[in-house]
Amino acid sequence: MKHTTGDELADRALTLHREALVVDTHSDTTWRFMREDWDFTTRHDEGHMDLPRMRQGGIDAQFFAVCKAASHAQGETDLLKQTLDMIDGVHCAVRRYSGDLALATTADEVRSTVSEGKIAAVIAIEGGYLIEDDLRLLRTYHRLGARAMTLTHGFHTTWADSSGIGVPLEPKHGGLTEFGRDVIREMNRLGMMVDVSHTSEVTVRDVLDVSDAPVMASHSGCKALADHPRNLSDDAIRAIARAGGVVQVVFFPLFIDPEKARMVRELRPQIERLQQELKDDPEGFREERRKVHERMTETPSPASLIVDHIEHVIELVGDDHVGLGADWDGVSFLPQGMEDCSKVPYITLELLRRGHPEPTIRKVLGKNTLRLMAQVEAAADLQLD
């Protein structure tokens, strides 16, 4: 048997990565598109994503999140304008950088865009609160190109329970309300992907009970490996897979590193106290929470943890139900060796190193997500027959 050297394996991994269609389902870089002083085509020292680093990382399709971040949105009255501004930001970026970026609303459009040498941009709404309890807004976002929606963020909506982020939340509805079920039915009809990241386990169950199309968890980890409230239990992963869905593994160390997740649990009383003390000063709370979280960066988390979570999903439910959802520019730090999106080829190399076959790796990198996207479209078409 011929021995494979490290250089040969690296060359094989890079070739495979360049040939594969690579899809990531969560980036918060969207807000940068709204800045007139920010150039997507320039390599930046700040942040996680720009065109040169996407090209280096081999990212072919990116879901760009539209979000007025989590609990900071509660009580605000201009959510519609902010949502429309962010959607417009993606459209403006597609127009401004038309030689490199194109809007994609179907799996076929993703493939055709990539075949033209461009990066496919998919608009995803992050947080069902942005529809303001109005299905007309959901339909409007769809008409403007949105093809996925995360049902909650770090807080409950009026119709769905959230998992919380660092602090678990007491249930408010016991999953989905009847209106929440209507939201899922309307998303199925429209052909929008239902995203259960950020939702509670009971909400996941209710979604799967209602949805006629498979669902995704666009940026989640595995609770069996890192016990964090944002992560999915094995039971939830099995249920998502049984329905044909996909879990896209997040890269944030607090969600994938068991030691960091333990620290989150230990620091929870301090965070809860700050939340109560600064309940009328959300900016102040965020700054104090950032200081608490800074101690978690003292010991770097290795990028291999990302692949641990990918492997866990594969071992649990097979290789048809896992993908990538980094959370670029939406997290405060990333693992060592995955500091920005230029480092994504590491995942292909590490999966090869661990003995995974090339067809499995292609599924992880993007085929599973595109298959899900096509199935959601097909389920919507069936409702039109």
Describe the structure in your own words.
- This protein is of the alpha/beta class and 385 residues long.
- The protein has two domains: 332 residues, Metal-dependent hydrolases (TIM Barrel, Alpha-Beta Barrel), CATH 3.20.20.140; 43 residues.
- The chain is 46% helix and 11% strand.
- It has 14 helices and nine strands.
- Strands 1, 2, 3, 4, 5 and 6 form a six-stranded parallel sheet that branches.
- α1 crosses α13 and α10 packs antiparallel against α11.
- The longest helix has 27 residues.
- The N and C termini lie far apart (56 Å).
- 48% of the residues are buried.
Features:
2 domains, six-stranded parallel sheet, globular, three-stranded parallel sheet, 46% helix, TIM Barrel, 385 residues, 14 helices, alpha/beta
Give a short summary of the structure:
46% of the residues lie in helices and 11% in strands. It has 385 residues and is of the alpha/beta class.
Topology:
Layout (H helix, E strand, L loop, with lengths): L5 H14 L3 E5 L23 H7 L3 E6 L12 H18 L4 E3 L3 H9 L3 E8 L8 H9 L2 E5 L27 H13 L2 E3 L5 H10 L5 E5 L13 H9 L3 E4 L3 H4 L1 H20 L4 H13 L9 H14 L4 E3 L20 H9 L4 H27 L1
Parallel strand pairs: 1-2, 2-4, 3-4, 4-5, 5-6, 7-8, 8-9
Helix pairs in contact: 1-13, 5-6, 10-11
**What is the typical, i.e. mean, pLDDT?**
93
- Given as residue ranges, the uncertain stretches (5+ residues, pLDDT < 50) are 69-73
Oligomer: single chain
Q: CATH superfamily of the largest domain, please?
A: Metal-dependent hydrolases
CATH topology category name of the largest domain: TIM Barrel
CATH architecture of the largest domain: Alpha-Beta Barrel
Q: How much of the polypeptide forms β-strand, as a percent range? A: 5-15%
| N-end to C-end Cα span | 56 Å
Largest beta sheet, briefly? 6 strands, parallel
H-E order: HEHEHEHEHEHEHEHEHHHHEHH
Number of domains: 2
**How helix-rich are the residues, as a percent range?**
40-55%
Backbone shape: globular
CATH class of the largest domain: Alpha Beta
How many strand segments? 9
Based on helices, strands and strand pairing, what is the structural class?
Answer: alpha/beta
> Which value, in Å, is the CA radius of gyration?
20 Å
